[in-house]
Every structure is written in C-alpha cells, then in structure tokens.
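Sequence design from tokenized structure. All designs in this work follow the same two-part layout: the structure record, then the generated sequence. An example of the structure record is given first.
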C-alpha cells in the first residue's frame, strides 16, 4: 500500500476510515507478516479486535498499535495520520495551536500529539557522517533585556558567570550536501565536542569549522583534516570549503522557533531539533515518502508523565502542563 497524496485533503481522502488506516499501518509496520510485539513470534492468530500470539507461553492479545506511539490513544488513526502529515510536510514546523484549530482537538492534546510525532522522527540509528563535515554551535533563547524581570539572570549572566549561560547551547555537525546531527548540551565545551564528533563522524574526514579556538584540537589529531573558515576576518570560503550547510540548518531551526513556536522550553528543545533535523535530512524526497518513513518509525511509546517529568527533574516545576508555551 502506497500513499501518493500531495495535500492534506488528499491525505484525509486516502485515509477515509479507521479500517483503511489500520491496514496501512499493518503493512508499513509488518510488511504483510504480523509479529507479536511481546515475544516476536510471527503469523499470530487474527481475532475480531486484532491478533493473538500463537506461542503458548506468550498467548497475549494485541493490536497493530501496541508498542507504538499510538498505543492507548483515544485519537483516531485518521487524525494521527493528519497530524503526522502536517508536521512532516511543514518546512518550519506547525504549532500545537494551529493543529488544534485545524483538526478540532484541544491545544494540549495537539501538543502531546506533536511531541509523540517528534519521537517518531528521532533518528534511532544515525549513520556516521563522512567526507567533508561542517561543525558549528549556536545558542537558542531570548535576549535578557526582552525577558520579564523575574526571569532574568543576575546582571545578565547565568549561574556560572558566562554571558551565554542564559541561552541553551546547541551543537551541530553536517555532512556537506548530506545529513545533519544536532545535540542540545548544557554548555559547548571541548570535551563535549570531542565526544559528539567521535560518536557521529568517521575518521579521516575533513572537518570544517569557524575560527572558534575550541576547535583547535581537531588540528592536533591525525584522525581528521581540519580546515578553518575565519568569519571574524570576513572569510566565508577557504579553498572551496565553507560552513554554509550547518548555518543553513541553524537558519531553518531559528526561523521555525521564532516564527512558529515563539518560545521553546530548554527541556524539550532536543525534540524540536530532532524534528527539524528529520525534515532536513529527508529534504530530497517527497512529502508522501517522508510521511511513509515516519509511519515505519512509529515504534516506541511516549507517555505524558514521562514527557513532562524531564522538565520536573531539570527545573523543579511542571512545564507546559496547563497553558502550554509554543
């Protein structure tokens, strides 16, 4: 089953009822060979409400949504697919307020739906970047002078005394003309940069950075070739090397946050980065193909309490639980 739609009305027409949606999900998840999500045994018995595992020691009943982001959701699969299409086809993302208005659900429901879609978009098995790889960092957050007085850091600085401590650092690496990997961190340091590069970049790659002194360690190691593009001296191309790819991604990310979401909580920022990275990494395929890839990557539940617990642990309060910020 292939979905060759190009617009939201065509998407809703294609997924005309729940049975069509369920059959499509079964095909994308199992490829015609259902498997028990508890023990992995294939070809279970089909029941009136789903399946039953044929293994006597397991014998559990399940449906195609068990073990996915849709499990125990009261939202119909038809609306789920509409949200997934809107999120994956909108270049700069779509806010929960907009989804709520368009699909007739509450903003809080739409916010939770979108975060589960971002869980689907997260790259669970990222490939190593190679060739010419661009490295850069950025900072996400508002200026101190634009914040309410009771939210400003003392003297415009954070607890560590560093000026940028009031914003959230984001570290990015991009393969020239290829994919991007984005990681939110507490602070961009040499140690964190080394760990991320080691985890995501193949040895012998050419590393292109700006003139930030932190990246000097790349020149001292034989595992990489290091090229510096010194922006502080008006240099934007060095022998054909540049950092345009990663800066292009930063532009999309920040324009999306400023124009669509307006404000993003630091404890959820990584999910938004994963969303933008997924669209950027699949920019060469159609919206329908991107939608299909997302459906195939829908395994793994994300419960609401687990989603907001991140904020409770890091900030000591309950974020985005009443009037949600987006």
């Amino acid at each position: 089953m292939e979905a060759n739609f190009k617009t939201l009305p065509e998407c809703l027409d294609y997924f005309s009822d729940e049975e069509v949606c369920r059959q499509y999900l079964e095909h994308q998840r199992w490829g015609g060979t259902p498997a028990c999500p508890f023990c992995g045994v294939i070809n279970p018995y089909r029941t009136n409400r789903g399946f039953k595992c044929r293994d006597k020691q397991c014998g559990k009943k399940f449906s195609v949504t068990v073990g996915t982001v849709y499990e125990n959701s009261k939202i119909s699969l038809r609306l789920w697919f509409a949200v997934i299409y809107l999120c994956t086809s909108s270049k700069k993302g779509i806010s929960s307020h907009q989804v709520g208005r368009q699909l007739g659900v509450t903003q809080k429901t739409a916010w939770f739906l979108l975060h589960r879609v971002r869980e689907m978009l997260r790259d669970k098995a990222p490939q190593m970047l190679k060739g010419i790889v661009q490295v850069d960092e950025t900072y996400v957050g508002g200026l101190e002078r634009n914040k309410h007085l009771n939210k400003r850091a003392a003297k415009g600085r954070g607890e560590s005394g560093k000026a940028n401590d009031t914003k959230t650092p984001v570290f990015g690496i991009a393969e020239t003309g290829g994919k991007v990997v984005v990681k939110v961190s507490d602070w961009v340091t040499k140690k964190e940069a080394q760990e991320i590069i080691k985890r995501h970049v193949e040895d012998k790659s050419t590393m292109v950075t700006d003139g930030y002194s932190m990246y000097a360690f790349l020149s001292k190691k034989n595992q990489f070739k290091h090229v510096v593009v010194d922006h502080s001296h008006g240099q934007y191309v060095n022998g054909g090397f540049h950092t345009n790819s990663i800066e292009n991604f930063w532009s999309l990310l920040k324009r999306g946050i400023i124009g669509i979401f307006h404000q993003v909580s630091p404890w959820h920022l990584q999910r938004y980065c994963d969303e933008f990275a997924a669209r950027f990494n699949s920019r060469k395929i159609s919206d329908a193909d991107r939608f299909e890839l997302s459906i195939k990557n829908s395994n793994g539940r994300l419960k609401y309490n687990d989603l907001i617990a991140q904020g409770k642990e890091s900030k000591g309060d309950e974020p985005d639980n009443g009037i949600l910020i987006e």
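Strands lie at 45-46, 51-52, 61-62, 132-140, 168-175, 180-184, 206-209, 225-228. We note this feature because it recurs in several other targets discussed in the main text.
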